[in-house]
Amino acid sequence: MNLTGKQKRFLRAEAHHLNPIFQVGKDGVNENMIKQISEALEKRELIKVSILQNCMEDKNDVADALADGAEAFVVQLIGNTIVLYKESQENKQITLP
């Protein structure tokens, strides 16, 4: 399943007021980070991840790695901020249009 343009627009609006809860630094993406992001997505469904200036990896690669590892969707990649969405199994809060 892919997100439609309308769904992405809705999720971007929902994520606007959120603050990043994870930061990707010079070590890049690792298994522990992916595990924590998966758990956070299960609780919140929609999160922001900030990419620090000292991160050596390309931001598109970081976004893809996080999305693949957490089995989530990249809603938006703007500047150095990634917005990720994954439908929760137990804590469903967001209803997509």
UniProtKB/TrEMBL annotation:
<keyword id="KW-0694">RNA-binding</keyword>
<dbReference type="Pfam" id="PF01985">
    <property type="entry name" value="CRS1_YhbY"/>
</dbReference>
<protein>
    <submittedName>
        <fullName>Ribosome assembly RNA-binding protein YhbY</fullName>
    </submittedName>
</protein>
<dbReference type="InterPro" id="IPR017924">
    <property type="entry name" value="RNA-binding_YhbY"/>
</dbReference>
<dbReference type="InterPro" id="IPR051925">
    <property type="entry name" value="RNA-binding_domain"/>
</dbReference>
<feature type="domain" description="CRM">
    <location>
        <begin position="1"/>
        <end position="97"/>
    </location>
</feature>
<dbReference type="InterPro" id="IPR035920">
    <property type="entry name" value="YhbY-like_sf"/>
</dbReference>
<dbReference type="InterPro" id="IPR001890">
    <property type="entry name" value="RNA-binding_CRM"/>
</dbReference>
